[in-house]
């Protein structure tokens, strides 16, 4: 409520839709940054584990390459699941919302 006693927003207040939009952008950005860090961490951890195993077994570069491949593949799968949204999973996310506004398939 403003100082005037009515429901007009103060000049410094943002409309509700604007703050919601900014929150959505921030949420997507944070999710993307977190997924990128996890991807990098998976690659580094698996590569270092492979290097450690190679040094113990004197098999350099066998497990280093295996660890690199596993870290990259696992990190990429996690990245795609995290940022893919509705494209991955069982489709439960699509149960409401957009489907309610679509016309039935049999309609002309």
TrEMBL record:
It comes from the Bacteria. Keywords: Membrane, Transmembrane, Transmembrane helix. Residues 1-11, 90-102 have a biased composition (Basic and acidic residues). Pfam families: ATPase_gene1 (PF09527). Residues 1-24, 83-108 are annotated as: Disordered. The chain crosses the membrane at residues 32-53, 59-80. This is F0F1-ATPase subunit (ATPase_gene1). It comes from Rohdeia mirabilis. The lineage of its organism: Bacteria, Pseudomonadati, Planctomycetota, Planctomycetia, Planctomycetia incertae sedis.
């Amino acid at each position: 409520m403003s100082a005037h006693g009515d429901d007009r927003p103060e000049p410094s207040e943002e409309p509700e839709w604007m703050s919601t939009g900014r929150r959505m952008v921030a949420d997507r950005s944070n999710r993307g940054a977190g997924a990128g860090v996890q991807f990098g961490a998976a690659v580094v951890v698996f590569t270092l584990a492979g290097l450690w195993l190679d040094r113990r077994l004197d098999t350099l570069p066998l497990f280093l390459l295996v660890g690199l491949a596993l870290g990259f593949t696992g990190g990429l799968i996690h990245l795609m699941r995290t940022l893919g949204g509705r494209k991955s999973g069982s489709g439960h996310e699509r149960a409401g919302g957009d489907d309610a506004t679509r016309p039935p398939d049999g309609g002309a």
